[in-house]
Amino acid sequence: MHTMWKGTISFGLVNIPIKLHAATENKDIKLRQLHKECQSPIQYEKVCPVCEKEIDNEDIVKAYEYAKNKFVVLDDDELEKLKKEQEDKSVEIIDFVKLEEIDPIYFEKTYYMSPNDGGSKAYALLRKSLQDTGKIGVAKIIIRSKEQLAIVRVYNNTLVMETIHFPDEVRAVENVPNVPAEEALGEKELETAKMLIDQLTTEFDPEKYTDEYRTALLDLIEEKKNNEQVTTAKDKPMPDNVTDLMAALQASLDRSKKGTTKKTTKRKTTAPKTKKAASQ
């Protein structure tokens, strides 16, 4: 399993060297966009709208737009220094709370935690402590240049870290439009709804839920492959040396003809003057 972060997490005087591994993966089927006419993949270029030319990565700088079309430019060295200062800090568990006290709206991404070299005993100590107390740890961590609030808990005998949103990242529920106020509901309607919920109530089994759209899309793709309903992108035409040579020769010939024409025209305009001078 790929390691995407290494560091130390601590609670009290206990330090645990750990590694983080992504616990989930995105299985969306990525579809490419092709040119309908020649079936070639579409490319997207980075173009400056003012200079009207394509820009290379080395010509790009990062900036913060503090007002419309007004920016504060930040160079890579400044950002890297700031990032390093934060990443060098060990991750400290700030508080211990109950999991049910955190609403799921705060949860973002889950990472498996494994002990790094020499960290097995401290890892087991934190795991057992969390299991026995029924608590989870709240910590801060820098991941991909962003400070994240996170919780540490036990999942199937493995410590996991789940990044959660800061409070100001969760939009105010009061801003949700058209939410009805308390409505007068009939007793019969309410009882019927509760009965339906009771009938559909079961233990959560994640294995019973599948992505039916993704399965159908993969089946369609496989069917088209088997029926040879496929296409191959054409290679970008490369300059032909012979064509380039002929073009160069033709250009030289045209240039030579223009030069000859100019010389002929010059002789015709100067000839009468020469004749007149001879007769004198």
State the major sheet. 7 strands, mixed, barrel
State the helical fraction. Answer: 25-40%
Instruction: Give, in order, the helices and strands.
Output: EEEEEEHEEHEEEHHH
Find the CATH topology of the domain at 5-25 and 90-171. Answer: Ku70, Chain: A, Domain 2
Helix and strand composition category: alpha+beta
Gross CATH architecture of the domain at 5-25 and 90-171: Beta Barrel
Strand content: 25-35%
Low-confidence stretches: 274-280
Q: Label the overall shape.
A: extended
Ends distance: 104 Å
| Strand order within the widest beta sheet | 1-2-8-11-10-9-7
SS element count, helices: 5
Total count of strands: 11
Report the average pLDDT across residues: 84
- CATH level-1 class of the domain at 5-25 and 90-171: Mainly Beta
Q: Give me the Rg, rounded.
A: 35 Å
Question: How would you describe what is shown here?
Answer:
The chain is an alpha+beta fold. The protein has a domain at 5-25 and 90-171: Ku70, Chain: A, Domain 2 (Beta Barrel). The chain contains five helices and eleven strands. It has helices at 76-87, 120-133, 187-200, 212-226, 241-279; strands at residues 5-11, 14-22, 47-48, 53-54, 62-67, 70-74, 91-97, 107-115, 136-143, 146-155, 158-164. The protein starts with a strand and ends with a helix.
